[in-house]
Amino acid sequence: MPHKVTAVLSAALLAAGLAACGGGEEDRQAANEITVWTEENLADRMTVQQQIADQFTQKTGIRVKLVGVAEDQFSQTLTAAAAAGELPDVIGALPLTAVREMEANDLLDTETPAKVVDQLGRSTFSARALELNTSGGKLLAVPSDGWAQLILYRKDLFDKAGLQPPDTYERLEAAAKELNAGGVAGITLAIAPKDSFTAQSFEHVALANGCELVDKAGTVTLDSPQCVRAFEFYSNLAKNYSVKGKQDVDTTRATYFSGKAAMTIWSSFILDEMASLRNDALPSCPECREDKEWLAKNTGVVTALKGPDGTAPAQYGEIVSWVITRDAAKDSAQKFVAYMMNEGYERWIGMAPEGKFPTRTTFAEAWNKLPAGVNTKKPLAEIYPADVLEALRKSPDTFARWGIPQGQGKLVGATMGELPVPKALSGVVDGSLTPQQAAQQAKSEVETIKRGIRG
User: Residue 374: pLDDT band by 50, 70, 90 thresholds?
Assistant: First the structure.
């Protein structure tokens, strides 16, 4: 996620966690104990999860050893545990690429997730979230929640200019051109070549035009006409209507918060900040000085975007999930995941509701009322209109992702590490590449990455 703080997993904690995993399924089942890793490893969130786990233990008698694992250390930690025969029973908050990495290395229990979903009611889950976690007819993981990439726009400026919400390429470009005046940029757009946020922002725009990273056979398709048009569209916005320079995750937010841009593309994690609920990222627009919620009240939200070559509106988003490992104490693991997705679910998504849209649709109304923020707490429903919240709640149903449906999760993860697409985009913006050349360069680099992936 664009600005999640990554905690460092200490060697002592890792050693303790791995040691707790040993013994195999039969021993742990007999000991009535499971080990759970979680990527929600910030201190305050670990506290909440421990409280939920303790209540699960009180209800079932199954003890839970909770271990926080940093997202950027997950692959290394997983590899070490698998080699030592010390996999945990359950892992929580795993992004889609990590689920596919585990699938590729045959580390998943692919039977129990479907049992959890059927137990809780398949119809109560987002169909798209289940689809993104399905491979070869098998459900690989239980989707727990998601965050969305959004197009944010100044409703007051749009209304004054008589513009439609920027939900298509045509409307987005028209608004950027019209509102790029008077010291206000039409849009502030990430273009920094070494920022994964640039990759996420572009993927959002590319998916809208039917541009895919690979086809069903796994062939890299970044030079397709749909992708070339996406490169052209994005770079045109950045060159002509955005703030000059290599804009990134921090500068785009700062520009929009200062009132000096009419639009931006950002993740849903901006919603609490935009409402002045976090002291480390407060809006600074002139109107915000008298009304701290002014920017939130005057910002419209577009979830899915449609390009001229796209068959339907699409949106980039991340689904995080619970997985059960191949060596898990399966009965206990199933009970734990079901508990986290039911009795413990409101507290789970309540840790950061602006970035934890429920994939269990029966919790939609409860999500509305959950307090968001850090220094100040307030339900999103007290800040944002009902139609905005409804669009956010439904956004997991329209999430699309490069490579995941085609079984290329490891490739997607590798490209996010090397960032070939942001590098190519930056070349178009600085004039060293044409959109066609950028698409070809990105394709060639992704093909090189693909050849280097083991397994």
Answer: confident
Q: Give the span between the Cα atoms of 365 and 358, in whole angstroms.
A: 10
| CATH classification at residue 174 | 3.40.190.10
Cα 175 to Cα 240: distance, rounded to the nearest angstrom: 12
* pTM listed for this prediction: 0.88
Task: Round to whole Å and give the CA distance between 220 and 213.
Answer: 6
Residues whose CB falls within 8 Å of the CB of residue 455, separated by 6 or more in sequence, listed in order: 104, 105, 410
In this structure, how many other beta carbons lie within 10 angstroms of the beta carbon of residue 455?
Answer: 7
Strand partners, 11: none
The token pair at 249 is 């995750």
- Considering the domain architecture, whether residues 392 and 409 belong to the same structural domain is answered as no
Number of independent structural domains in the chain: 2
pLDDT digits (tens, 9 = 90+) for 16-71: 444 444 455 566 555 699 999 999 999 999 999 999 999 999 999 999 999 999 98
Structural domain range at position 191? 149-315+403-452
Residue 6 lies in a domain: no
Q: Are 325 and 90 in contact (CB under 8 A)?
A: yes
Contact present, 248 and 195 (Cβ < 8 Å): yes
Q: Which tokens in the block code for residue 129?
A: 């979230």
Q: Mind listing the pLDDT tens digit for each residue in 179-235?
A: 999 999 999 999 999 999 999 999 999 999 999 999 999 999 999 999 999 999 999
Residue ending a domain, among 398, 418, 437, is 398
Cα 98 versus chain centre, distance: 12
Are 438 and 414 in a shared domain? Answer: yes
